[in-house]
Write a structure and sequence with these properties.
Length: about 140
């Protein structure tokens, strides 16, 4: 489990410092409103446009936003209509990495689109997948 969540954190950290724009620009968008328990650090968010990208940690876009407001809001504009999935975590201490306890369990809050949960690891594509066609808003609880 630690390896799988570490891969998520690595993908988020690698792309989290800069926002990227998806290759196919359209008029659709998705906004995530994150409910956070603390107003320190940053929320790192990555967006995937396919099961292969989600499973292979190849996001189409990423953003890092300060967790100083409530809710923390992240919007990805210019998306092509289709299926997407999101992974995120709240970097409480601002070190740019997801931190783990000695047993490999995350000690910083994380979440997936649809508030999906995994079974002994991250939520799978089928649980996290959602459709975008126009403006979509999801309220996400970081846990």
């Amino acid at each position: 489990m630690k390896t799988r969540i570490a891969l998520i954190a690595a993908a988020i950290a690698a792309l989290g410092a800069a926002a990227t724009t998806p290759v196919l620009a359209q008029d659709s968008s998705v906004t995530f409103e994150f409910e956070t328990g603390a107003r320190t650090g940053s929320v790192l968010v990555v967006l995937f446009s396919s099961k292969a990208g989600y499973d292979g940690n190849q996001p189409v876009a990423a953003m890092t936003v300060p967790a100083s407001a409530s809710p923390v809001t992240v919007t990805f504009d210019g998306l092509a209509p289709g299926s997407y999935g999101m992974r995120s975590f709240h970097d409480l201490n601002g070190d740019g990495e997801m931190n783990f306890n000695p047993f490999g369990m995350p000690v910083e809050p994380y979440a997936f689109s649809n508030n999906a949960v995994g079974n002994m690891g991250p939520a799978n594509w089928e649980r996290a997948r959602f459709n975008v066609n126009g403006a979509v808003v999801q309220t996400i609880s970081l846990r």
